[in-house]
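Ops channel
N.P.: pipeline sanity check, posting one input/output pair.
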């Protein structure tokens, strides 16, 4: 196969798959398959060796109507998927009516696919279309409100730490020592003595 043939096959398969997803495809197919044995067995002449078996019954016309209606309902849900509930219920009822009318529903070969196909048709629901994204509106975000400026207090002076003096001698400056001893600086002592002499 050439690559062009493979690409065409894949495109065709995808289109068919998309078509099947938009309708109750398998329910309709089973309804068509169910109508064939219901329609066939009342009119068939089976031969086994030299012996011919005729399955003709008094319900031959009823089997013809039931078989054709089931095939029509199967095609109708392909063409018009909105009729799925009606077609599904009608297919189930026709499959049940075919039990006494058409040789036990085509010997079960039409009854079982008819019941399953009718159930699939009635239960099918279309896929929800994805919502289109809403157009994006340009939204301008206002700047946050600015608080009025407040006076900032000056930074506090660091606390003074006084070292503990328990058990240590007190250190004094030179002037403080002289005052503590009862005198002042040496030059001042002479002036003080002269003042006393007068």
């Amino acid at each position: 196969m050439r690559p062009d043939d493979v690409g065409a096959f894949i495109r065709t398969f995808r289109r068919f798959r998309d078509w099947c997803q938009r309708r109750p495809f398998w329910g309709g197919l089973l309804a068509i398959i169910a109508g064939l044995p219901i329609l066939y067995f009342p009119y068939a002449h089976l031969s086994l060796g030299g012996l011919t078996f005729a399955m003709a019954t008094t319900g031959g016309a009823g089997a013809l109507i039931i078989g054709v209606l089931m095939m029509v309902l199967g095609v109708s849900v392909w063409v018009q998927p909105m009729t799925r509930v009606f077609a599904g219920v009608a297919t189930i009822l026709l499959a049940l009516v075919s039990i006494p009318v058409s040789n036990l529903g085509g010997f079960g070969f039409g009854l079982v696919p008819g019941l399953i196909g009718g159930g699939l048709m009635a239960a099918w629901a279309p896929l929800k279309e994805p919502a289109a994204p809403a157009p994006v509106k340009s939204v301008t975000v206002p700047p946050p409100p600015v608080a009025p400026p407040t006076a900032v207090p000056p930074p506090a002076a660091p606390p003074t730490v006084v070292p503990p003096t328990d058990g240590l001698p007190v250190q004094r400056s030179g002037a403080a020592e002289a005052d503590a001893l009862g005198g002042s600086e040496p030059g001042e002592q002479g002036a003080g003595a002269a003042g006393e002499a007068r």
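N.P.: looks fine end to end. The chain has a mean pLDDT of 79.
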